[in-house]
Amino acid sequence: MTKYVQIAIAGIQKRGTKEQEKLLNSFIPVAKPSIGDEEKRKVLEVLDSGILTTGKYTLDFEEKFANYVGTNYAISTTSGTVALDVALKA
User: Fold this and answer.
1) In 3D, which of 29, 9, 30 has the Cα closest to residue 20?
2) Taking the model in full, what pTM does it have?
3) Whole-angstrom Cα distance, residue 23 to residue 8?
4) Rounded CA gap, 50 and 57, in Å?
5) Considering Cα of 37, then 39, then 42, then 44, what sign does the dihedral take?
6) Could you read off the pLDDT of 6-51 as tens digits, one per residue?
7) Dihedral of CA 60/66/67/68: which sign?
8) Which 8-state DSSP code applies to residue 21?
C-alpha cells in the first residue's frame, strides 16, 4: 500500500487521530507557499472590490502577463479546466 493510499484511508477512517496526523506530517510538500505582505494586500484589495473574475484587476493582470511572456494578448480564466478548454478551441 502506498503512502498516498495510507493517507487517504487515514483521512477517511481515522480523522483527527494521532495516526492521521503522523501520516500527514510525513508527507513531503511539493512546494511551500511564499506569500508576502504585498501579495496579501493585493488579494484583499481584489476581494474588497467585489469583482473577482473581470474588471480592472483582470485587465491589468492580462496586460502585464502578456508583456511578461512577450506576446500581444493574454486571457485569464477562472480555472485550469477553462484554460484547457480555451486552449483546445484556439
Assistant:
1) 9
2) 0.55
3) 10
4) 11
5) negative
6) 666 666 556 667 776 777 677 666 777 788 999 999 999 999 998 8
7) positive
8) H
| Rounded CA separation 7/71 (Å) | 43
Task: Using alpha carbons, select from 33, 32, 49 the residue that is nearest to residue 41.
Answer: 49
Q: What is the pLDDT of residues 65-74, one digit of tens each?
A: 999 999 999 9
Cα separation, 44 vs 35, whole angstroms: 13
d(CA 45, CA 50) in angstroms, rounded, equals 9
Which residues, at least 6 apart from 12, have a Cβ–Cβ distance to it below 8 Å?
A: none
Residue 61 and residue 76 in contact, taking contact as beta carbons nearer than 8 Å? yes
CB 66 within 8 A of CB 48: no
Which residue type occupies 24? L
**Domain residue ranges in the chain:** 1-32, 37-89
